[in-house]
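Render this sequence as a predicted structure.
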Amino acid sequence: MIVALTGSLSLREAGRIVVETGGVGYELFIPLSTYYRLPGTGVSVELEVRQLVREGAVTLYGFATAAEKQAFDLLTRVQHVGPKLALAVLSVMSPEELMAAIVHGDIHRIDAVPGVGRKVAERVVRELSDKVHELKLAAPEPGAAPSDGRAQVLDEAVSALVNLGYKQAEAKFAVDSLDASAAPEGVETIIRRSLAVLFGEK
């Protein structure tokens, strides 16, 4: 079973990458949190990997940190939470935020993830409330904003929201509604703040 992978990043897309090592290209599906930590193509990367075999198909899921992988494993143990939905949760919430939501019974915070729904959010809290101690969390890594300006940062945030299932117009409205100080915070923070706007939070 593949549990980690080191090689050259040959393809980098939101939600999907290809890592080449030993003359073989491995396709991995990733959360947006991992995507924004990755370097450009042609650069060596080292990822935590979860290999799943379902209905005869072998699929690899990649993570920038061990905590993300552990959170993915916990989420996929919940009934009706498959790998795709687990990646969606980790694209919006860090493992630390997920743990806090479960510990405090914050169903609304989990329900805010596109595609989850209240019933699944309730199930996540109920089934994982006594298991979150399994998350061995390190100090969170600060998100880095792209170096070539606010416009590109905000464009990436809009693209990420579209990948999460929002329409282009509503994603752009949410991102544009943020104040001018948002860009230096990094794309991940902008996404979370935009989701709060989309859900009518303050």
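Summary. Residues 29 and 200 are 30 Å apart (CA to CA). The first helix runs from residue 32 to 35.
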